[in-house]
Amino acid sequence: MRARGVPASPNRPTNTAMHMRVEKGDIAAGFAAADVVIEREFTTSQFHQGYIEPQNATALWNRDGEITVWTSTQGAFSVRDQVAVLLDVGVGHVKVVPMEIGGGFGGKINVYLEPVAALLSKRTGRPVKMWMSRADVLRATGPTSSTYNRVKVGAKRDGTITAVQAHFAYAAGAYPGSSVGAGVQCAVGPYEIENLQLDGFDVVTNTPKTAAYRAPGAPASEFAVEATLDEIAEAIDMDKMDFRLKNAIAEGGRNASGQPQPKIGAAEVMQAIKNHPHYTSEIQGEDVGRGVAMGFWFNGGMESSSSATVYQDGTVGLILGSTDIGGTRASLAMQLAETLGLTLEDIKPHVVDTDSVGYTAVTGGSRTTFAGGWVAYDLGEEIKRQLVQRAARIWSVPVDDVRYEEGGVSGPPAEDGAPRRYSFQEIAGNLQRSGGLIAVSATSRRNTQGAAYAGHIVDVHVDRETGKVSILRYTAIQDVGTAIHPAYVEGQIQGGAVQGIGMALNEEYFYDADGHLLNASFLDYRIPVANDVPMIDTVLVEVPNPGHPYGVRGVGEAPIVPPQPAIRNAIADAIGVRMYHTPMSPSRILDEILPKE
Amino acid sequence: MATVHIPAHWRTHTDGRSTVEVAGRSLGAVIEALGAAYPGLRAVLIDDGALRGEVAVAIDSVITENDPLEPVDERSEIFLVPAIAGG
Description:
Chain A has 15 helices and 21 strands. Chain A is α+β, with helices and mostly antiparallel strands and about 600 residues long. Chain B has one domain: Beta-grasp domain (Ubiquitin-like (UB roll)), CATH 3.10.20.30.
């Protein structure tokens, strides 16, 4: 295998498919300037997304050559494009109808069954439905990478981080393409580091092909960095959040790749943690400890499309290309309503098939409320422009004399002095008599999404006899830009935190010596259940994104990042045992405790 | 001229340079000029006439859609980074 990125082609076989390096400043000078240097090694297991319904697809390949696919997916257009390539047909001959989806978390982007069902339909002349069992899902749809990571951090006694050097090796499975690139770029996301050298290795292994999972690549690399930073803070006897605040990246700062940052909320989140009653309260009880950690994710922009029609009763149909995950319809309808000065109930959102709306990228990458919101805003502005024109026509006045304001149009006074005003409902009722209903469409491809920063505080109790870690209190704080639908934003943060807790404490792929998965069921692959976690308290820090008309940032992925290091740091605080592997299952905790007792 | 930041693992293709000054008023023109000056870099960046899918390009603080028509300012900083997939 030829290794891309390695300076010279290797002269012996290697399972390193790709090597990348992010470098900044002078790493040797950085460590020379440090008062304290700590180097640690970490490993993480493979975790699965654990979405509700297994993969499924129904396909009909008509004799006229047109293919229709009904499937549970994060992205109907992504499915369309993949099916078209795999079956060697034009995208115009494939229609994908997205069904309601019970979460995807990155696992419902790749196609598995769709092209097979289509081919079987062609052979049989009938519609064909296929679905996976849960065991199929766990064996064949791609968990995260398992990882080996080594991190070395240097810092001055005043808390300044002088250097970070790291080696991240991610198992890709049977084919190249792990998420190590994102892992490397996210590793020190919350901080501005003057001198760093981060190496990433995409390693091919005899295990299933890995796939994206919520903030792909970030939880493992940031676990290693945040855990090491915790030890640095203790070594220089500095408050954990003061230490992080001293190194926080801010507007104008340069990230690991050297890119200047727009307005971001890393420091605001850190300050919110420091001020929170959970952080400032006393810890009580034996073998109880508290941990904190930060998390970072880039967020996505990409392409979204929608159309809208003003109906004669004053409601507005909003046609979406984004499948609804976590409240997409509501959050996008709210942004159109805001632009038009209407209520959410006035907007009727619909998710449609790929023949019925313009191209829209997947619901993923924490992009949908941002990108779809931009489209909703553009639609609203165009509707307002056309309503102003229509009112001017009805009133026989210049367009420039008509304004859209407070959910309606206003014009100059009539000849008798009476004010000219139509509410949205009134002008909508006049549309068919003044030129027809208004239908508009828009596409956005903006990438001014800004990044997301999350910080979690957790209290745990460790049972020294069983090794079980119980979560006593959990607070998740995050810069969400503007919370369009606060309850859905809280739900995203809570869901991300619980998935991260699963990675931290329970979830793990077990293989036998021949590479067979031993725990291909939810009985043995143990995701957290309701009685494993307390209420996840949330704090929404709002640092509006200047790159969005309503200040939106993505929120879905960042909250899965902090749980592993926060819980690891809490366990260390509780019993003085530092863990270097996740999950920190009872048996692994006992492996550390027993030799010391 | 725009400044292109070269990732450390590709600097073998640019004689060790971490930044390269490149003329061009669009992303496509910049990448073309960069590839002409450094053929080894062209091989890792471009496949079948287009930027490889695993490469992302940021102009200043904004990741682009790798659109060759994306305008580039003379003072722009261009960053070549691994493409990131969300979940």
